[in-house]
Structure formats: structure tokens, C-alpha cells
Fold this sequence. Notes:
This protein has 236 residues and is α/β, with parallel strands linked by helices. The protein is built from 9 helices and 8 strands. Strand 4 and strand 5 form a beta hairpin. The protein is globular. The mean pLDDT is 93. Bound molecules: 2'-deoxycytidine-5'-monophosphate.
Amino acid sequence: MKRITIAIDGFSSCGKSTMAKSLARKIGYTYIDSGAMYRAVTLYCLDKGIIAPDGNIDETRLRDCLGKLYISFIPNRLTGSPDTYLDGVNVEEDIRQMRVSSQVSRISAIPFVREALVRQQQSMGKNKGVVMDGRDIGTTVFPDAELKIFVTADAQTRAMRRYNELKAKGDKANFDDILHNVIERDRIDQTRKVSPLRKADDAITLDNSNMSVKQQDEWLIEQYRKAAAEDNDRKD
Ligand code: DC
């Protein structure tokens, strides 16, 4: 079977990465979490004071630093999933903190940040055989992807999933803060000028509000089988 490109887009905290990782593992593809790349840049900005305590973003400094930042993914033997590295340091835990979540939509709305990361993402997927999740993968990064999925779930469900995830890790979590963050990120992601979150015309919608992880995994593998078979037929 020829390798294809799989783009999984959708709202924040709707389980995209769980399903994308699981699919990639089953079919032997590389999983790339494009959101982790925007988060890594945001973490860098917070740690280096490029985002000031008053929230101001020093775009001139960010532009200067961006070309020198090295983001990579290295498989974690314990979890079986790739961890995010920033300049050789594992930042997988740090990029999931609320201080990063609450600033990442602003950083990812900056056009030159998007241009730089989209270029890297396209290069990571140039040989196909990737499952990439994000907001603009099917519309901008890989508009020719053979399989495009658009995932959605209602905001309350998504906030509750995120709350449970943070609690399970032992983090302090406040449900109302998380719900507010989910709604605010939806708003910024959908209304930004460059590559706003939207469903590609040829994407298949999955509303997983009432689906178990197992059900959505089964649904996704079925979509993969169909898309890969169609691609095979087309090229034969
Ligand atoms: O998937 P996530 O919640 O970890 O993504 C973090 C943020 O990055 C999200 O608020 C929107 C942004 N993002 C983006 O703009 N484009 C992508 N391809 C992936 C994420």
C-alpha cells in the first residue's frame, strides 16, 4: 500500500492528538503534533521575556530568534509517543502548562510565525507517511492530503476532558478557567487573519462529543483504509 498524508484538524482539546497518535502507531506512520510547535515557540517567548508580564509581544525580537529555534520530535520509549524538544531540551511537559495555553493562540496568530512553522511542517511531511494534527493542516500545510478529518465536540465536553487530564497529572485545575480558555482559543483560532481554523471542503467531519476513544479509533482506521485504497486505485 502506498503511503498517504493524513491531516487531522479541529478545535482545541477535542482529542485530535489522541486519535492521531493511535492511528500513526497502528499503521506505522510518523505522528507530528503541529500545535506542540506553536506551544514550543510560546514557551520560548515566555521564558525569554519576549512576551512581557503585561502581555505585550516583542515581535522584533521574536522575528530575530525564530530562525535560530530548533524544534524536533523524539520518540519517548516509555509512552511510545514523540516528545517535543526545543533546542535539544525536552519541553513536552512544560508546553502543556496553562501559562503556555493561555498565550499560544496569540503567538500562533502572528503571520511570520505561521510561515516559519508551516515551512517546517511541510518539510517534515514531504515523504508522506505522516499523520499531522493541528488547525490548518488540511487547508494550508497539506492541501493535497489524501485523508482530511475535521474533529469537533462541544466546548463543555472538551473543557471537562482537559480538566480530567490535568487533574490526573496532579496539576491544579479550575474547570471555569479551562472552559474560558477553550472558548477563547476557539474564537482566536477561527477569527485570525492567517489560516483561520476552518474545515477544508474535502474534509470529513467527526463530532466525537458522544464517542468513546475506542469508537473513534475504529472510525478513523476505517477512514484510513478507504482513503489508502482509493489512492492505490488512482495510482495503479
Ligand atoms: O493543538 P493545541 O491545542 O496543542 O494547539 C495549540 C495552539 O496552537 C492552538 O490554540 C492553536 C495553535 N495551532 C495553530 O494555530 N495551528 C496549528 N496547525 C496547530 C495549532
